[in-house]
Amino acid sequence: MRILLVYGTTEGQTRKIAEFCSTRLTEAGHEVEMRDSRRRMVDLDMPSFDAVILAGSVHQKQHQETLQNFAVAHRKQLKAIPTMLLSVSLSIAFENGEAEAARYVDGFVEDTGLKPDFVELVAGALKFDQYDYFMNQIVEHIVLENREPITEDREFTDWDALGKAVDAFTGSVADR
Length: 176
Description:
Mean pLDDT: 88
Radius of gyration: 16 Å
Largest sheet: 6 strands, mixed
């Protein structure tokens, strides 16, 4: 199966997630083309793909603008083939965060007009070493408000669950 994997990342965790997925899919015998949504894709041959995985992290309650722009620009083609959204956020990492993380997906659907066939809510990471003073304040006072204080880098991604979700997606595509 030929799979397009387009990702949008800010601190690099979603790129790491995309690379994990690409490796897993390749090892399962699939051909994967991985693209950064910030790059122009004039040479992209959408009809040549059997499935698409979109991976984007959430910042300020929205997925990357470049990933949303990709979804809008290719919406017609994406609706014609199986599509999965990996929505990466910190919300899902915390107790009672699933509803908030699901709202980010609802926002993506509303903003792009694309309703992916499969959605996986993926916990991201805190990368304090990459934050400036203002981002540190946002994380401390908004993201971690009323939660256990965290002051060092921490990865929350559940790699096993992510792998199983990607396997389930490709399995369902193969069954079509």
